[in-house]
């Protein structure tokens, strides 16, 4: 396998990576936006809470299932074409929310949006791997994550304003138009340089999959990536507004502000943790440190009183920052893979990270379990503080499990790219 020998950064390389980040930001917006409109979607589409959880989880189902195929396609055809296809399908899928009111069609549309979004993070990562020096990978990947998180922040409080001004169909129609404009922008870029050079041949795909399977820590990194994003998938992307409103007795606007604070922390954490890992010349030490702080934040959450103050913001900011450690897991993937397998290997890793989103389907089950009820309409506001705290203990235990896995099974790369 070849390694990346790029030594200097060109302006065109930066432009390519920024353009590749557009789809990631767009994908993140349409992924997160429904979480800020839970009650509005229930009223508009006449669905139950369980049906809404299925609509949300359908995105992750399509997203997760397409990760490895998406990686293979990127290695085969390059990122530019697939950026165009991904953004186009995402925009058409979001139009379905403006056109249809059937829950079944909404589930299908969200699943297609998830499948198309599978290219969103992989394409920028492949662009970085090809166009930028290896030592810049962690920081650059963190900047891509920052773009996605800024879009996610637009999917919290601002999307509520869009809803009040445009209504549900108008809001989703405008989002679809933005996606079509993004598709046009990507189509205007003419490919040349590293990414238009050698592409993976079809007969080499089995060999590359075998190489990924035998690469050290492939599955350990996948598990750590999944664990790293659990707080974001459960709290920031889906249930944070309802949870904070119930736990701290907040109104919806204040709860949304706290969720936005988590995304701000994640914005800062991506580039910061990527830089920290490169500075320390370590990958697994920052991972374990972030998991430990995340566990403390989740446990601390249950100890705060029902106040809306600086402590709440510090907790949410820190939790978001530490959850950005998934960037370092992708940097470790870059350490171990050359250009021919970077797309597919990143697909395997992102499939694991995105699998944390499938836990949203389990949240109604967890809520019913801690509430000891078989009712179908149990929500966070029906739970006692002890029951809400139990959910945080479950999430904190997952983070502690991640520390154990990283400590016992992680094989350090010392931020050096291996030449296979």
Shape: globular
Total count of helical runs of at least 4 residues: 18
Structural class: mainly alpha
Integer average pLDDT: 83
* Topology pattern, helix = H, strand = E: HHHHHHHHHHHHHHHHHH
Helix content: over 70%
Radius of gyration: 21 Å
> How far apart lie the N and C ends?
5 Å
Classify the beta-strand content into a percent band.
under 5%
Low-confidence sequence ranges: 374-378
User: What's the total count of β strands?
Assistant: 0
Note the main sheet: none
Could you explain how this protein is built, in words?
It is a single chain. This protein has 420 residues and is mainly alpha-helical. The protein has 18 helices and no strands. The protein has helices spanning 11-32, 38-45, 49-65, 67-77, 79-99, 103-117, 122-131, 137-154, 157-187, 205-214, 218-247, 252-280, 284-301, 310-323, 326-336, 342-355, 363-371, 385-409. Helix 11 runs antiparallel to helix 14. The longest helix has 31 residues, at 157-187. The protein is globular. Mean pLDDT is 83; it is low at 374-378.
């Amino acid at each position: 396998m070849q390694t990346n020998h790029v030594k200097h950064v060109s302006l065109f390389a930066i432009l390519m990576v920024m353009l590749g980040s557009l789809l990631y930001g767009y994908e993140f917006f349409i992924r997160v936006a429904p979480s800020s409109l839970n009650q509005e979607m229930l009223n508009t589409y006449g669905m139950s809470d369980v049906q809404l959880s299925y609509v949300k989880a359908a995105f992750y189902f399509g997203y997760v299932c397409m990760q490895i195929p998406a990686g293979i396609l990127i290695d085969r055809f390059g990122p530019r074409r697939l950026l165009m296809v991904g953004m186009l399908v995402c925009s058409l899928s979001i139009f379905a929310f403006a056109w249809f009111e059937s829950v079944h069609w909404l589930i299908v549309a969200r699943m297609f949006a998830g499948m198309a979004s599978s290219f969103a993070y992989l394409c920028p990562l492949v662009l970085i791997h090809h166009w930028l020096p290896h030592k810049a990978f962690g920081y650059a990947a963190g900047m891509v994550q920052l773009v996605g998180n800024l879009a996610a922040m637009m999917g919290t409080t601002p999307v509520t304003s869009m809803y009040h001004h445009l209504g549900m169909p108008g809001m989703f129609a405008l989002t679809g138009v933005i996606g079509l404009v993004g598709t046009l922008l990507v189509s205007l870029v003419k490919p040349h340089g590293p990414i238009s050079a050698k592409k993976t041949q079809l007969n080499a795909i089995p060999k590359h999959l075998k190489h990924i399977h035998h690469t050290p820590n492939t599955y350990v990194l996948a598990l750590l990536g999944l664990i790293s994003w659990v707080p974001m998938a459960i709290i920031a992307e889906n249930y944070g507004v309802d949870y904070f409103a119930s736990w701290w007795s907040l109104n919806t606007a204040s709860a949304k502000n706290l969720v936005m604070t988590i995304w701000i922390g994640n914005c800062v954490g991506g580039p910061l943790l990527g830089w920290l890992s490169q500075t320390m010349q370590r990958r697994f030490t920052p991972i374990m440190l972030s998991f430990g702080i995340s566990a403390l934040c989740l446990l601390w959450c249950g100890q705060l009183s029902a106040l809306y103050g600086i402590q709440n913001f510090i907790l949410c900011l820190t939790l978001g920052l530490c959850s950005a450690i998934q960037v370092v897991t992708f940097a470790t993937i870059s350490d171990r893979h050359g250009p021919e397998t970077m797309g597919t290997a990143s697909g395997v890793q992102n499939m694991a990270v995105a699998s944390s989103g499938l836990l949203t389907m389990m949240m109604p089950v967890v809520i019913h379990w801690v509430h000891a009820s078989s009712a179908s309409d149990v929500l966070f506001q029906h739970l006692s503080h002890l029951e809400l705290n139990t959910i945080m203990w479950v999430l904190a235990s997952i983070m502690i499990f991640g520390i154990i896995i990283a400590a016992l099974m992680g094989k350090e790369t010392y931020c050096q790219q291996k030449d296979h």
